[in-house]
Amino acid sequence: FQKVLMKDEQSDAHTYSIIFQVLGAVIVAIFAFAKGFVMPPIAQFPINFLLLAVLYGTGTLCMFNAFKYIEASEITIISSTRAIIVILSATLLLGETFSLQKAIGAILILTSAFLVSQKLGKIKFNKGLLYALGIALFYGLATTNDAYLIKYVDVLSFLVIGFLFPGIFLIIVKPKALLKLDKFLKPKILAKMLILTIFYAGGAVFFYYALITGAKASQLSPVHQSTVITTVILSAVFLRERDHLFKKIFSAVLVIIGVMLIK
After folding, report:
1. pLDDT tens-digit series, residues 41-50
2. Contact 109, 84 (CB under 8 A)
3. For a FRET experiment, which of 9, 40, 199, 244 has its CA 20 to 30 Å from that of 120?
């Protein structure tokens, strides 16, 4: 859905990022308030909530920009390196353990990203690749920050803030993006954005409930990267992203093996 949205040359990543974040907040808020909204302790952890806004806001902007320049399957594989960011940051900041097995798994994930970023034997550091690496960096650090905060919050209520604050941050960074909202809120575009956000919001709920039921950040993020297989297959079928398909599938398999070692 993101690739379809960003195919139009006139598409604006910043505007789409704002719509995505705010729409996500609205969707989750419906369930949060039905269950009983509990205001997260923002005043108690101001730095962490500021980081949440900046890291997720910047990561989302990188994500929409990446889909404008490279294939969905490539983005998914390259951004899987966020698992390495989570492992390192969770080990350093949260005291989670790091072993040789995890190191091997991390190397396999990095290798897969390296392979898929090559074209004709040479790595092309184009905008798309850099944006995909930006997704990994900012979302990876944001996941570690979430793993710390999740112990003190109600999951659904936290997710409302988790979607809303990055949206507010993006508006503050570029308020002129709001002037383009009417252009990108057409029924067809809004319907696609709504479906995209529902999938992301649903995935986020499962992700955070996994954290509060015992999964460690250094385990959960790599396991989440197993979605690369689904993305590579769906991109080949629906988006006709079939160039270097064998290399993509091989890289996706490496990610899965790396995930199995890290868990």
Report:
1. 999 999 999 9
2. yes
3. 9
